From TrEMBL:
Domain of life: Eukaryota
Record family assignment: Belongs to the dpy-30 family.
Pfam families, A to Z: Dpy-30
Organism: Aquatica leii
Name of the protein described by the UniProt record: Uncharacterized protein
Cellular component per GO, a single term: Set1C/COMPASS complex
Taxonomic path: Eukaryota, Metazoa, Ecdysozoa, Arthropoda, Hexapoda
Transmembrane segments: none
InterPro entries: Dpy-30_motif, DYDC-like_DD, Sdc1/DPY30
Length: 397
C-alpha cells in the first residue's frame, strides 16, 4: 500500500493531467462550435440553392407554357423556342446537381470531422472522470493511515478536487450528454426546425428541403411548428439576420477552422505515427528482456525496426510497380482489341453502305425501265385514239 506522501504526489500529478485534459476538451469544444457554424452555413446554402433552383425552374416552365399557347407565331419558331427553353432547363438542372453535390460533400466532410472530434472528446471525458474518481479513492484510503496534519491536507485536496469537479467537470459532463452542443435556446429551435426540414429566412419565411417557401402561418397549418416555443418572433428573426450577416463562401472559414483544429493535433498525430508503434514494441521488448543498457538497446531496436520498415516499403513499391506494369499491359491489350473491333465495325458499315448503294441503284434502274414501258404503252394507246380503227382494203396480193 502506498504511503500518504506517495498518494499526495500521485494526486498532484493526476490533478495536473486533469487540468491538461480539461484544456484539451475546451479547445476541442471551440473547434466543434466552429464546425457546427460551418455546417449551419452550408445547410442554409443548400436550402437556399434548392429554393432558387425551384423558383427558376418554375419560371422556365411558365415561359414554356406561354410559348406553347401562342397562336400568332409559326410552329417552327415555337418548336425552336421550346427547344431553347428545354436546353436552359437541362443546363440549370445539371448545374444545380453539381452545386448541390459539392455543398453536400463539403457538409458531410465537416460532419465526419466533427464526429471524429466528438468521439475523441468522449474518450477524453471518460478518462478524466475515471482519473478523478481514482484520485478521490486514493485520498480517502490514505486517510486511514495518516496523522492529523496529513488528514487535514488530504481533506483540503479532496475539497479542492470536488470544487474543480463542480466548477468544470460537471459542466463538461452535461455538454457530453447534449452531444457537445453548447447551444442557446434559439440555436436549439433552429436545430429542431432543421430536423423537420425547415430553415428560417431573415424575412421570416421558412425554406423546405424541396425548395418551397412557406410563411409562418402556412408552416403552422402544416403542423411543422407544433411543440416549438419560439418565444419572441422578432428576437428570433434578429438572430437569423445576424446569421445571414456571417453567411459567406465556406472555403475561407473552413480553412481557418481546419488550421485551428490541426494546431493541437498535428504534432501529436505526427509523433504517434512515427514513434507510437515502434516505441510501444520496443518498450515491451525492454520490459521482457531487461537489458543492461536499455537506452542502447532501444536505439539498436529502433534502428533495426526502421531498416526492416524501409526494406518492407521497398518490396511494396516493387510489387506496386509490377502491378502497375501488368495493368498497363492489360490496358494496351484491351485497347488493341477495342481498336480491332472498331475497325471491323467500320468495315462492316462500309460494306453495308456499298450494298445499300447498289440496291438503290438497281431499284432506280428498275423504276426508270418501268416508267419507259408505261410511256411506250401510253404512246401506242394515244396513236390508236387519234387514227381510229383502219377499215380500208387489205394490202397484199
Amino acid at each position: 500500500m502506498r504511503n500518504t506522501e506517495e498518494v499526495q504526489n500521485v494526486a498532484d500529478n493526476l490533478v495536473g493531467e486533469l487540468e491538461k485534459k480539461k484544456q484539451i476538451l475546451q479547445k476541442k469544444l471551440s473547434a466543434i462550435g466552429k464546425l457546427d457554424l460551418l455546417i449551419n452555413v452550408l445547410t442554409y446554402k443548400i436550402f437556399e440553392t434548392q429554393h432558387e433552383y425551384r423558383k427558376r425552374m418554375e419560371e422556365l416552365c411558365l415561359e414554356k407554357e406561354s410559348v406553347l399557347t401562342k397562336r400568332d407565331i409559326p410552329n417552327a419558331k415555337i418548336a425552336i423556342t421550346v427547344a431553347e427553353i428545354e436546353k436552359k432547363m437541362n443546363d440549370l438542372r445539371n448545374m444545380h446537381e453539381e452545386n448541390l453535390a459539392s455543398l453536400e460533400g463539403q457538409r458531410n466532410e465537416l460532419r465526419i470531422e466533427s464526429a471524429n472530434k466528438i468521439q475523441h472528446m468522449d474518450a477524453t471525458m471518460d478518462s478524466l472522470k475515471i482519473q478523478h474518481n481514482t484520485i478521490l479513492n486514493e485520498l480517502e484510503t490514505s486517510k486511514l493511515t495518516a496523522n492529523p496534519t496529513e488528514t487535514a491536507e488530504i481533506n483540503r485536496r479532496i475539497l479542492e478536487l470536488n470544487k474543480m469537479y463542480q466548477k468544470d467537470i460537471e459542466i463538461l459532463n452535461q455538454l457530453q450528454i447534449d452531444g457537445w452542443k453548447d447551444y442557446d435556446q434559439q440555436e436549439k429551435i433552429a436545430e429542431l426546425l432543421e430536423h423537420r426540414g425547415l430553415r428560417v429566412t431573415p424575412s421570416g419565411n421558412f425554406l423546405t428541403k424541396s425548395g418551397n417557401c412557406l410563411t409562418k402561418s402556412e408552416a403552422s397549418c402544416l403542423g411543422l411548428l407544433e411543440g416549438l416555443s419560439i418565444g419572441s418572433w422578432s428576437d428570433f428573426l434578429k438572430r437569423q439576420k445576424e446569421f445571414e450577416g456571417i453567411k459567406s463562401p465556406p472555403s475561407s472559414t473552413t480553412t481557418e477552422v481546419s488550421e485551428v483544429s490541426k494546431m493541437d493535433s498535428d504534432d501529436v498525430q505526427y509523433l504517434k505515427t512515427v514513434f507510437g508503434k515502434p516505441l510501444s514494441l520496443a518498450l515491451a521488448q525492454i520490459s521482457a528482456k531487461q537489458p543492461r543498457d536499455p537506452i542502447h538497446y532501444l536505439g539498436h531496436w529502433l534502428f533495426k525496426y526502421r531498416y526492416n520498415q524501409e526494406i518492407s516499403q521497398t518490396k511494396k513499391n516493387e510489387i506496386q510497380e509490377l502491378i502497375n506494369e501488368r495493368e498497363r499491359l492489360e490496358k494496351e491489350k484491351l485497347n488493341a482489341i477495342l481498336e480491332e473491333e472498331a475497325r471491323a465495325a467500320v468495315f462492316n458499315m462500309i460494306i453495308r453502305a456499298e450494298e445499300e448503294a447498289i440496291r438503290n441503284e438497281l431499284e432506280r434502274i428498275a423504276r426508270e425501265t418501268m416508267a419507259m414501258m408505261v410511256e411506250d404503252e401510253g404512246a401506242d394507246s394515244e396513236a390508236r385514239d387519234v387514227l381510229g380503227v383502219y377499215d380500208g382494203p387489205s394490202v397484199g396480193r
